[in-house]
Design brief:
Length: about 425
C-alpha cells in the first residue's frame, strides 16, 4: 500500500508492546525500540513502523517524505488526569504554603479548591474556553495528543455543565482529543454547609442523569480524602454512576489513606489516582482487581512532600501504572508532562522505558482509547511525538527543557 507520508531516518522509535491491554508489573520494562527506522502513515493512521529504509512499495508520486535523522519518535503522549477547566489561579496561596500551611488547612479555611470554585462560577464560557485552550496549546507543544479533563470547580449544575461543555467544544476545535470526566464530587460546596451526604444525594438525583442524557462525560470521579468525601460516600456515588453506565475513576490515598482504594477494588474502577499514601495492603487489592495506579508526582512536588507514590512497589505487585500532570490551579499548576515523566525517574526511580509505557500504552487504556492510540500498531491513529533526542533515555535524563520538536495528530503536523 502507498503511504501518504513517511517520517524516516529516526535514530530510535519507541514502540510500546501492545497486547490489547495495559502493561502490568514487569511487562512495563519491555518495549520494542527500533533503531534507524521509519513511520509510514496513510489516512491519518499508522501503516507501518519498521527498521531500515522504507520499501519502494510504500512510496508513490504523492508520498511526502520527511527526514528526522538523529531524532526519537514515540506515540503521542496521553495526559490521563487533568483538571483542565477552571477560572482564576491561586498563586496568592503560595506564600502560605511556603510558610507551612497545609493543602487541607487552606481548603478548610475556604481557600484551595473552594477559591477556584468561586472564580469558576463567575467565569463565562468564553473565558473558561480561552484559558483551557491556552493550557492545551502548552500541552501539545510538550508532545501531548490526548487529555483527560475533569470537571469539579462548579459544584452546582450550571457551572459543572459549563465546564463539561467547554471540554466538548475544545474536543471539536482543538487538535488534542479530550476525554471528559464528571467530578462534581470534588469538594462540598459552601451552600451545603458541610453536609457531604446531602451533596452526594443531589449529585446522584440531579446531576448524574443529566450528564448522561446530554452525553457530557464518559467517566465519573470523586475526591475521597480526609475532610472531603468518605469512602462510604465515594462508594455510594460511584455505584450510582456505574449503574448509569459511567466508567469510574477515584482520587484515592492522595494525602491520607481512608479507604478510597478499597472502593476502587470493590467496584473495579478503571483507575485509582494519586496514591501517594498507598499502603501495601491497598497495593495488593488494586493488583488483584486490575485497578490501574495513576501516579501524579508533580502534585507531590508541588505540595512540597517527600512521599512519592510507591511506584516500584506497585510494579513489584504486578500493577499497571500511568503518570499524568494532574494539571490544576492548586495542587499541581503545570501543563508540562515531560517534567512529570522526569519526576517519575528522579523521584520514583522508574526507568525511561517504564515512564514512556506509562504515558503512552497504559494511559491509552486508562482513558478507554486503547484500541485507537498509545502504540504504533498498524491501524492506530498516527499520533506521534518527535523528540530532539537521540534515544529514549535522553529526554528523561536531560530535564526541565522541552525536547519535543514536532507533533503529529492523526497524521498531520500540528505544532512547529
Ligand atoms: O487532584 N485532589 C483533588 N483535586 C486536585 C486538586 C485541585 C485543586 O487544588 O484545585 C488534585 O490534586
Ligand atoms: Fe486530581
Amino acid at each position: 500500500m502507498i503511504a501518504d507520508k513517511i517520517l524516516t531516518n529516526f535514530s530510535q522509535i519507541f514502540c510500546p508492546i501492545d497486547n490489547g491491554q495495559p502493561l502490568k508489573g514487569a511487562e512495563m520494562d519491555q518495549a520494542n525500540v527500533i533503531e534507524n527506522g521509519f513511520i509510514a502513515i496513510k489516512d491519518g493512521k499508522i501503516l507501518k513502523v519498521a527498521a531500515g529504509e522504507p520499501e519502494a512499495s510504500l512510496i508513490g508520486s504523492h508520498t511526502k517524505i520527511v527526514d528526522y535523522s538523529g531524532k526519537l519518535a514515540s506515540p503521542g503522549l496521553i495526559d490521563c488526569h487533568t483538571h483542565l477547566v477552571y477560572g482564576g489561579s491561586r498563586e496568592n496561596e503560595f506564600a502560605k504554603k511556603l510558610n507551612g500551611v497545609s493543602y487541607l488547612d487552606i481548603l478548610k479555611e475556604g481557600g484551595g479548591i473552594l477559591s477556584t470554585v468561586r472564580s469558576t462560577r463567575s467565569a463565562s464560557f468564553e473565558n473558561l474556553y480561552d484559558k483551557s485552550k491556552r493550557l492545551l496549546d502548552q500541552m501539545i507543544i510538550h508532545g501531548v495528543t490526548t487529555v483527560e479533563a475533569k470537571s469539579g470547580y462548579g459544584l452546582n449544575w450550571e457551572t459543572e455543565k459549563r465546564q463539561l461543555e467547554v471540554v466538548k467544544e475544545l474536543n471539536h476545535n482543538h487538535p488534542i482529543d479530550l476525554v471528559s470526566t464528571f467530578m462534581a464530587a470534588h469538594a462540598v460546596p459552601p451552600e451545603f454547609d458541610g453536609d457531604g451526604d446531602a451533596f452526594i444525594e443531589m449529585i446522584i438525583a440531579e446531576m448524574l442523569p443529566q450528564v448522561k442524557e446530554e452525553n457530557l462525560a464518559e467517566f465519573c470521579d470523586i475526591f475521597c480524602e480526609t475532610g472531603v468525601f468518605t469512602a462510604k460516600q465515594s462508594l455510594r456515588l460511584l455505584e450510582a454512576a456505574k449503574e448509569l453506565g459511567f466508567k469510574l475513576r477515584i482520587h484515592a490515598d492522595e494525602i491520607d489513606s481512608i479507604g478510597g482504594v478499597d472502593v476502587a477494588a470493590e467496584l473495579n474502577t478503571v483507575s485509582a489516582e494519586h496514591l501517594m499514601a498507598a499502603t501495601d495492603e491497598g497495593i495488593k487489592k488494586m493488583s488483584e482487581s486490575g485497578v490501574i495506579g495513576n501516579l501524579l508526582p508533580g502534585t507531590t512536588f508541588s505540595l512540597m512532600k517527600d512521599t512519592y507514590a510507591p511506584a516500584k512497589k506497585m510494579l513489584d505487585a504486578g500493577m499497571a501504572i500511568t503518570l499524568s500532570t494532574d494539571s490544576n490551579p492548586g495542587s499541581c499548576p503545570t501543563s508540562n508532562i515531560q517534567f512529570i515523566m522526569q519526576l517519575g525517574c528522579f523521584k520514583m526511580y522508574l526507568t525511561p522505558v517504564q515512564v514512556f509505557n506509562a504515558v503512552t500504552i497504559n494511559a491509552a487504556y486508562s482513558v478507554g482509547l486503547g484500541d485507537q492510540i498509545g502504540s504504533f500498531k498498524e491501524g492506530k491513529l498516527a499520533d506521534i511525538a518527535i523528540w530532539d533526542a537521540p534515544n529514549v533515555d535522553y529526554p528523561l535524563y536531560f530535564f526541565a527543557t522541552n525536547l519535543v520538536q514536532d507533533v503529529y495528530k492523526h497524521g498531520e503536523l500540528v505544532s512547529k
